[in-house]
């Protein structure tokens, strides 16, 4: 079972993940439309796109959302604000090649628990459309 601190909200997690990627040279956009859904955070660096789903509680839903991003993102991650990462989450993320980022709000630090593998399931036609749409969205500094 994963525990979270009840005083935080998903936006706090998204802001922490934004800072985490930004300080590593990524351009970050929030709530990016993707085939009738949205990606919580899309981080781009050079030609690479990383899709991140941020979850405080229901990481199983986050993993389902990650599945939808396989058609457009080179790397896919789930970000959680928990003290412990369940074995089930780690197993499912590894099975799918997804990364796990943990935010420790007490220390205000993000860390990689598992790094994502390069996604080979990208659908080039959908990726081109997604990239065109992405260019029209302001990035967060």
Give an overview in words:
The protein is globular, with a radius of gyration of 14 Å. A six-stranded mixed beta sheet has the order 1-2-3-4-5-6, with helices on both faces. The longest helix has 13 residues, at 10-22. It has one domain (10-133): Trna Endonuclease, Chain: A, domain 1 (3-Layer(aba) Sandwich). The termini are far apart. The chain has 141 residues and is an alpha/beta fold. The protein has helices at residues 10-22, 59-68, 87-96, 124-135, and strands at 27-34, 37-45, 48-55, 75-80, 99-104, 109-114. Helix content is 32%, strand content 30%. It contains four helices and six strands. A hairpin with a 2-residue loop joins strand 2 (37-45) and strand 3.
- What is the gyration radius calculated from CA atoms? 14 Å
Question: Order of strands across the widest beta sheet?
Answer: 1-2-3-4-5-6
State the separation between the terminal residues, measured CA to CA: 34 Å
CATH architecture: 3-Layer(aba) Sandwich
DSSP summary: helix tally: 4
Instruction: Spell out the helices and strands N to C.
Output: HEEEHEHEEH
What portion of residues belong to β-strands? 25-35%
Return the average pLDDT rounded to an integer: 91
Shape designation? globular
Summed up, the domain count is 1
Which ranges are low-confidence, i.e. pLDDT below 50, for 5 or more consecutive residues?
1-5
Let me know the largest β-sheet: 6 strands, mixed
Helix content: 25-40%
Number of strand elements: 6
If you consult CATH, what is the topology? Trna Endonuclease, Chain: A, domain 1
Structural class based on helices, strands and sheet pairing: alpha/beta
């Amino acid at each position: 079972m994963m525990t979270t601190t009840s005083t935080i909200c998903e936006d706090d997690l998204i802001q922490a993940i934004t800072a985490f990627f930004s300080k590593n040279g990524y351009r970050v956009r929030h709530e990016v439309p993707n085939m009738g859904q949205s990606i919580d955070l899309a981080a781009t660096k050079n030609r690479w796109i990383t899709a991140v789903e941020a979850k405080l509680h229901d990481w199983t839903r986050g993993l389902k959302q990650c599945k939808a991003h396989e058609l457009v993102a080179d790397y896919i991650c789930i970000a959680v604000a928990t003290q412990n990462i369940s074995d089930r989450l780690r197993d499912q993320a590894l099975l799918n090649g997804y990364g796990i980022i943990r935010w420790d709000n007490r220390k205000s630090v993000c860390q990689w628990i598992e790094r994502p593998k390069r996604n080979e399931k990208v659908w080039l036609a959908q990726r081109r459309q997604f990239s065109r749409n992405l260019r029209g969205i302001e990035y967060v500094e």
